[in-house]
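Key result, reporting period 2: structure in, sequence out.
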């Protein structure tokens, strides 16, 4: 063992002991996990390929805890490239050092090294998830987090007879997704599209070479089950249904909601939904299935049309491999069913009970109006048109397309290092126009965006209202699931067309709006959210369609310290991953610097 390895282990032990002492003070239980990142051979869709996994599992292991617990996860990177892990929806009070987004709160965990995350749970209860936060590595590096009620308490509904985690994933048939992504970015071509959707890692009966591995879930007649559904898909909203069965949504994003009875659900990437279903149909076999909900222009047909499936099998029955013996989910909406997608979203409300009250900010101190757009990066010296050679598709917030800095923003903020970011992210668009017009001959100044690393600074305790406004630039209007790290927010309003600041606020729901961490800005519409900036640190804001995040639909909030120890950013662990000085994706560079066993050849 090298001296450097010994030092790293010693630092980790000191951090773990200090963290455990803090947790004991908070009276929470402590859990420990080891995540080993490595390449694993997998065969799907008749093709064998190598994917990055955690503990040889796709999806990865489930973390199961009680509300208020703390988890230490040591990530051992035996893969080919640098990776980080994000604990999606976990607020991490005062501890952004373990939040995980690459070049926002840390630099990558390089091959052959390890890093221990301290994951601090607070008021979250229900289902959340974890995933890689380095380019598209999350396509195969992800898993669920089950947060049970505190010991001695129970659910705000009848305790189910059983529960099942269902992680919905996208499968890419390409030989090496990360090399394909690198090449697409360098050549300014379209980014990769998935080839299928999996339920707990299996594509199901409707995909080639997949029926023998279809997942089966046995149920007993008359019993009720809690399904913990995670949309870990990289670039698609999904419809989910079980043939001939009703579903009751009772939770979302680690919080409870008023029950929604429906024959289907719609879940955006990044979201989790807890659903009850009762096995009350004639004993037999029933498909549960997912298909993409596409909010793109109907003329866009290049999305993944596949149907991911599994079998719900009543106990005592026999499964026949013929699909005709399994009831088909005719209640599953079609790909372009905008009406069904909108109807489900419009029904979501917080539980707002005595035990789970809402606390919607009303005295707003910061207001922002942010456009979410498709754009063009002008790389051609003679023409900035979309069609000009060398120009690239981009996305933006208020016409600023995010670019990663050379070191993480959190480190720069904490150590007061200049030149890494600027604090001038605009509160409003620089140009006001008809954001949702049907015509496509927009002024070039609206279409062309600029790259920058601009952040928004908030005082501790500020009450923030943001109106996200969708635009139709480049005919690229779709639903944009926006995700905020370090906080939950209330969705107080949404609508279609251009936001009207006189009439639309009159429609706000300030009584029981959904409390979430990810929610969709409607296609050609607007979304208003409110939250209290009560978590000091640097927190990422981004669209959870990774295509759009890759193209720049991101920014970050810096929340300053408050006046107490509890409202002050804690110091960093002494063993944070070091930055290499380059924020490019770097997959090819890193692959060339390691041998077949994942060891760094440069050492």
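The corresponding designed sequence is given below.
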């Amino acid at each position: 063992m090298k001296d450097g390895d010994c030092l790293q282990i010693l630092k980790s032990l000191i951090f773990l002991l200090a963290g455990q002492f803090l947790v004991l003070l908070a009276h929470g239980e402590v859990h420990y996990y080891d995540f080993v990142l490595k390449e694993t051979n997998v065969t799907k869709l008749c093709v064998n390929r190598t994917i990055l996994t955690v503990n040889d599992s796709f999806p990865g292991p489930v973390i199961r805890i009680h509300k208020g617990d703390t988890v230490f996860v040591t990530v051992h990177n035996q893969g080919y490239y640098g990776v980080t892990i994000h604990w999606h929806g976990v607020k991490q009070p005062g501890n952004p050092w373990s939040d995980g987004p690459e070049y926002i709160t840390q630099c990558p965990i390089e091959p052959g090294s390890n890093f221990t995350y301290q994951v601090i749970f607070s008021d979250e209860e229900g289902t959340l998830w974890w995933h890689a936060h380095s380019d598209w590595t999350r396509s195969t590096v992800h898993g669920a987090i089950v947060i049970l009620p505190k010991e001695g308490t129970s659910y705000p509904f009848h305790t189910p007879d059983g529960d099942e985690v269902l992680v919905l994933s996208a499968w890419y048939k390409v030989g090496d997704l990360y090399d394909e992504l690198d090449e697409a970015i360098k050549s300014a071509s379209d980014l990769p599209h998935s080839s299928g959707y999996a339920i707990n890692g299996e594509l199901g009966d409707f995909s080639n070479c997949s029926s023998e591995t279809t997942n089966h879930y046995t149920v007993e007649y008359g019993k009720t089950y809690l399904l913990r559904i995670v949309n870990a898909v990289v670039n698609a909203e999904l419809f989910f249904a079980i043939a001939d069965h009703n579903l009751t949504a009772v939770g979302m994003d680690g919080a409870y909601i008023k029950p929604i009875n429906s024959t289907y659900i719609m879940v955006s990437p990044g979201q989790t939904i807890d659903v009850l279903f009762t096995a009350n149909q004639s004993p037999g076999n029933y498909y549960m299935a997912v298909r993409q909900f596409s909010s793109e222009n109907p003329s866009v047909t290049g999305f993944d049309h596949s149907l991911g499936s599994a079998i719900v099998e009543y106990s005592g029955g026999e499964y026949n491999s013929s699909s005709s013996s399994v009831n088909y989910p005719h209640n599953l909406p079609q790909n372009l069913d905008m009406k069904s997608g909108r109807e489900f979203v419009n029904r979501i409300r917080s539980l707002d009970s005595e035990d789970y009250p809402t606390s919607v900010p009303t005295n707003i101190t910061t207001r922002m109006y942010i456009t979410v757009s498709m754009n063009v990066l002008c790389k051609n010296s003679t023409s900035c048109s979309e069609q000009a050679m060398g120009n690239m598709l981009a996305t933006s917030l208020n016409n600023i397309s995010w670019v990663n800095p050379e070191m993480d923003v959190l480190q720069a903020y904490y150590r007061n290092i200049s030149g890494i970011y600027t604090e001038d992210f605009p509160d409003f668009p620089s140009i006001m126009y008809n954001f949702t017009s049907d015509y496509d001959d927009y002024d070039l100044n609206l279409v062309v965006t600029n790259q920058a690393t601009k952040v928004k600074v908030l005082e501790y305790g500020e009450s923030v209202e943001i109106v996200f406004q969708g635009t139709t630039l480049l005919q690229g209007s779709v639903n944009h699931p926006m995700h905020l790290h370090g906080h939950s927010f209330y969705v107080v309003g949404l609508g279609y067309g251009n936001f009207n600041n006189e009439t639309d606020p009159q429609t706000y729901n300030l009584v029981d709006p959904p409390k979430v961490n990810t929610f969709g800005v409607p296609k050609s519409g607007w979304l208003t959210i409110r939250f209290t900036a009560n978590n000091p640190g640097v927190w990422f804001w981004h669209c959870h369609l990774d295509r759009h995040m890759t193209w720049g639909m991101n920014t970050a909030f810096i929340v300053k310290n408050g006046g107490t120890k509890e409202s002050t950013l804690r110091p960093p662990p002494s063993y944070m991953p070091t930055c290499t000085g380059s924020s490019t994706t770097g997959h090819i560079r890193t692959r060339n610097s390691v041998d077949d066993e994942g060891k760094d050849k440069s050492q």
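Confidence is low (pLDDT under 50) at residues 13-26, 583-603. The CA atoms of residues 496 and 525 lie 4 Å apart. This case is discussed further under Risks and Mitigation.
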